[in-house]
C-alpha cells in the first residue's frame, strides 16, 4: 500500500525523512565489470564492441554492421505509422521552437579601466546520445536529447541504441530521422559508452555523452567523465502533485498513474491540503489502474513507492516539495502562478488543472529529461546550454595592464608564483 | 628538452598526435581507498573525519575543532599583510563585478497556442568549496570559487581546506573573509568530500562541491557525483601561446614560464608562424628561468612538457589550437580580435601582447577555474551558471491542452504508456 502521512501527526518528521531517504533503485555494484568492458573496447575496438553487443543483446552484429545504413533508417522510418510520424514531427517542431529561445548570446564589453572582458559561446562539436533498448526505448526521448544538440549547433550526433535480439522500434529511427540524427549504431551498455568516449575504427569519438541507461550505462558514464562530458546520472522518474480543494481527484489520480506506469522505481506523491481529496484519489487509483492494458506495473509502482501526504496549508506543501526536490511538480491548485514562485527545487513545474505532466513528456515544448532523485537541488533539465560551452575573453592594452599590475603582482608574490608576477612586470617599463 | 615540431615536417601529424595524447599526470588508482574512506565517514561521521585528517595531514584536530572559529578567522585575516589584503579586495571587487553580468534571467512566455512556457532560475542552497593545502593553496582560488556562488545567491558556502601539520596560510582565511565565506573546516582529502556530500554532526551536507584537489579528492568527487553536483575534475594547468612576428620573445617566454612554474604536469606550448621567434623564445626561457627564486619547478615543467610548434600560417596555428583545446590560449599576434573568432575550443582567450595569462589568474575579473586536459571541447570555466539551476515551467488552459492532446496521446500510445495518454484524455470532455 502507498504511504499515507499527515503533517500534523507527531511522528511526521521522522516518517517524512524515511520517505526522503528511501531507495527506489537496486544499487547494483557494476563498477568493476564496467572497468573491464571499457578497457576491452579501448584495446580491441569494434571487435570488442561487436562481441559484447552479441553477448548482452543477442543482436547478431559484426564489426561491419554496427552502424545502421541510410537505407535501413529510411525503411524503418517509412514503416512507422504515419499518424505517429506526424505526431513526432509536431512534437519536434514545438520542442525545437522552445529550445531556440535557450540559445545563449555572447557578451563582450569594456569595463571602466579599459579592460576587455567577456563570454563567447560555442557548440560542442560531437555528441553521443544513448537511447535505451527494450521497454524504455522511447522515440520522444530521442527528440528530447537530439533537438537541443541540433539547436546548439552540434555538428555530429552519434546515437547508440541497443537492439535486443536484433530488434528495434521503427519509431525510434523515425524520431532520429525527424531530429536530423543520421549516425546511428546498434550498440548498448557500457561498451557503447566506451566506444563513444574513446572511439573505434568505425565509431569516431565524441566530446560529450547524454541520455539515460541501466546501471552499466550509468557506471560507464561515471568512469568516462573527464575524457568526455556527461549529463546527469538519471534515476527513476517521479512526480509530486500539490493539490487543494479545487483539484479533480480523477485527474490527479490519472497523473499519479502516468508516473507509476514507468515502473523501475518510479514514484508518485500527492500532497494535499484537502483530506477528502486524499480519499477520493485513493479510490480513483484503484478504479483507473484496473482500466490500463499494462496495469501490473502501475499498480506495483503505486503500492511500493506511492505516497499521500496531508498538510494543513499550501505553505507546508511547498516546504515539503522543496525538501523532496522532485523531477516533476504539478500545481493542481486554484492559483498555481501564485504558488510557483515558492517552489525552489524542481525539475519542472506544471501549472494548474489542465497541465498533466504527460503533456511535458511529449509536445509541451520543454524538455522531458529532468533531474531525478532529489538532484533538482543542484541540477537542471537538459537544454541547449548542455551542448555549448563558454570561453572567457580578456584583453588589456598598456594602460589597463598598468592599472591592474600592482595588485596582480602582489597576489602572485604572496602565492610564491614569482613567474606569474614577472610575466606582468616584464611588460611594464618600470 | 621541450619538444620542437614543424608543421611542414612529413611526420608532423604523428608527432602532434603523440603530443596530444601524452599523459601529464600519474593516474594513481585510488578508487578503492576512497570508497572505504567515504563509507567510514558515512558511518562514523566527525570521528572518522578527525581521525583521517590527523592521519593524512597531521593536523591535530578533534571532532570538536574541525571548524575554524570566527576568532581564528579574524586573527588570521588580521595577520595578513595589508598590501595583500588590499590586492585581494581589489581582485574580489573586479571578479564580483564581472560575474554579476553572468546572472541568468527568467523567461516565461505564451506561445501562439496559448501554452505558457519558460525557464526559472534559482540558486543552489548550499555549496562546498574545496581548497587544496600546501603548495597549491591559493587565496586567489578561494575568491574564484566563492564569488560566483555568492553572486548566484547561494546561502551557505562551506569551505574545506586541509592544514598540514596544523598550518594554514593566513591569506587563505583572509580571502575567505573577503569573499564572505564564514563556514571553514580544517579538513581535506576524500574525507572532506565525503563529509560535505553526506553531512556529519558538525558539518551539514551541501548540494554541490567545487574546487580542485589531488587524486583522492578527484576520485571522491567522482564517487559522490549524483548525491551532490560537482564541477569538473581538474587536471594540470596549461597555456598555448599563438605568436606571430610582432610578438616580444621575452614576454612570450615569461608567460610560458608562469605556466610551467605551477609544476605537477603543467604544460606550456608556443605555436608560432615566425621561426626566429621560436629560437629567441628558447634563449629567453633559459635566461629568465635562472632568475626565478624557485627555478627548478619551472625548468622541469618546461623541459618535460614544453613544446614549440612552428607553423606556416595563423590558420594552421588555429587548427592546432582547436585540437589541443587548451585551458588558456594567448593570442600574441598583430590582430588578436580577428583571430579570436576562429578559436573554438579554449577555456579562456587572452587578447594581444599586453594580456599575460597571469592577469586573468588574479585581477582581470574573469574566472581562473577553467577546463584542462582538452576538456574545453565540452566544458566551461567556473561561473555563476554553476551555482544556479533551471526549473522549466509549463502551463495549459483547456484550449491549449485540447490543441496539444491528439499528438501527445498518439505518442503515448506508440510508447505503450497508456496511462500517459489517459491523463490527457480524461481532461477533455470527449
Describe this structure in words.
Two copies of one chain form a homodimer. Chain A is of the alpha/beta class. Chain A folds into three domains: 3-24 and 235-364, 3-Layer(aba) Sandwich (Rossmann fold); 31-104 and 122-230, Nitrogenase molybdenum iron protein domain (Rossmann fold), CATH 3.40.50; 396-425, no CATH class. The first copy, chain A, has 17 helices and 14 strands. Chain A has helices at 12-21, 31-44, 46-57, 70-79, 82-100, 139-152, 170-179, 189-198, 215-224, 249-260, 275-289, 295-305, 314-324, 336-340, 357-362, 398-414, 418-425; strands spanning 3-6, 107-110, 116-123, 126-130, 156-160, 183-185, 208-210, 229-230, 238-243, 267-272, 307-310, 328-332, 348-351, 388-395. In chain A, strands 1-11-10-9-12-13 form a six-stranded parallel beta sheet, with helices on both faces. In chain A, strands 6-5-4-7-8 form a five-stranded parallel beta sheet, with helices on both faces. A three-stranded antiparallel beta sheet of chain A has the order 2-3-14, with no helix packed on it. In chain A, helix 2 (31-44) packs across helix 3 (46-57). Chain A is globular. The mean pLDDT of chain A is 95. Chains A and B meet through helix 5, strand 3, helix 10, helix 14 and strand 13 of A and helix 5, strand 3, helix 10, helix 14 and strand 13 of B. Strand 13 of chain A pairs parallel with strand 14 (388-395) of chain B, so a sheet runs across the interface.
